[in-house]
Amino acid sequence: MSRCSLDIGQGCDYHVDMLHRPMNDTDDERLLADDTLAALQQEVARCRRCNAAGYDVVHSPVMGGIAAVPMVLVGQSPASPQGTPGGLPFNGRAGRRLFQWLARIGWEEEAFRQHCYITAITKCYPGAGTNGKGDRAPTRREQQCCRPFLVRELALIRPQVVIPLGRIAIEFFLGRIGPLDQVIGRTVVLSEDSPAPGACLIPLPHPSGASLWLNKPANQALVAQALEHLRSLRDQQTSIPNT
Ligand code: SF4
Questions:
Q1: Ligand 1 centre from 26 Cα, in Å?
Q2: Spatial separation of the C-alpha atoms in residues 152 and 42, rounded to whole Å
Q3: Is 129 helix (H, G, I), strand (E, B) or coil?
Q4: From atom 6 of ligand 1, which residue's Cα is the shortest distance away?
Q5: 25, 97, 175, 202: which sits with the fewest CB atoms below 10 Å from its CB?
Q6: How far is CA 183 from the centre of its chain?
Q7: For 53-104, how does the pLDDT look when each residue is reduced to its tens digit (9 = 90+)?
Q8: What is 16-236's CATH topology?
Q9: Nearest 10 degrees: CA dihedral of 121, 123, 125, 126?
Q10: Whether pLDDT at 121 is above 80
Q11: C-beta separation of 2 from 181 below 8 A
């Protein structure tokens, strides 16, 4: 947690003013930035860095949204193109669990997608895991290859809330962490030298179900706590409807 300036509990008072910031001329900048975000997405679509580095990734970048949103959700990497109907991120099995979680705090999938930019640590499908369970986790080298894209996405969007899903995404922001239960259920304000300076970070486990971590009732309680933090931030931000 060395990159975080402040650990906050239930609320995020430091950010209440930011979250209530009215839409104004800065939004013009955000809409202009959207063009640049579109350009970045085209760049990602052309990228073959991982293939050049010897990884047999399936080039099917799944990322979505516009720059003028207050939240960014960061997954690990896209699912198989066959498992993401319509090319929508989190439109498969992991997405079903994610949106079940959000439904518990009264957040409908469509509204969430409209107000959250969804991306991932690596943008291409890494292939199936060797143990037959779930997908292969991207290597550190692949993560490094793709890192500049995520850094640029965050710089363009300047999110107020960031939701990293799973250890790899959480460690992108916090550096090496210990057991997941030390970070899930906590909300962290990212430091000024973070890729998302000043944003409230609400870590969640990856919803793929590949890990047994979620089976423990104590861990499920931590997820519920994290979701309550997210609900609290959403309710403070009048421009984020839940339906
Ligand atoms: S995962 Fe990222 S760096 Fe690797 S090929 Fe895809 S877009 Fe390029």
A1: 31
A2: 13
A3: coil
A4: 124
A5: 25
A6: 15
A7: 999 998 777 677 777 789 999 999 988 877 666 678 888 888 999 999 999 9
A8: Uracil-DNA Glycosylase, subunit E (3.40.470)
A9: -50
A10: yes
A11: no
Answer yes or no: is the C-beta of 49 below 6 A from any ligand 1 atom.
yes
Inter-residue contact 18 to 198 (CB < 8 Å): yes
The CA–CA distances, whole Å, from 155 to 151, 183, 193 equal 6, 24, 12
Residue 174's nearest CA partner among 136, 205, 201 is: 201
Cα of 59 from ligand 1 centre, angstroms? 8
- Residue ranges per structural domain of the chain: 16-236
Q: Whose CA is nearest to atom 3 of ligand 1?
A: 146
The answer, yes or no, to whether any atom of ligand 1 lies below 6 A from the CB of 233, is no
Q: What is the pTM of this model?
A: 0.84
How many Å lie between the centroid of ligand 1 and the Cα of residue 126?
A: 10
**Residue located nearest, by CA, to atom 4 of ligand 1:** 50
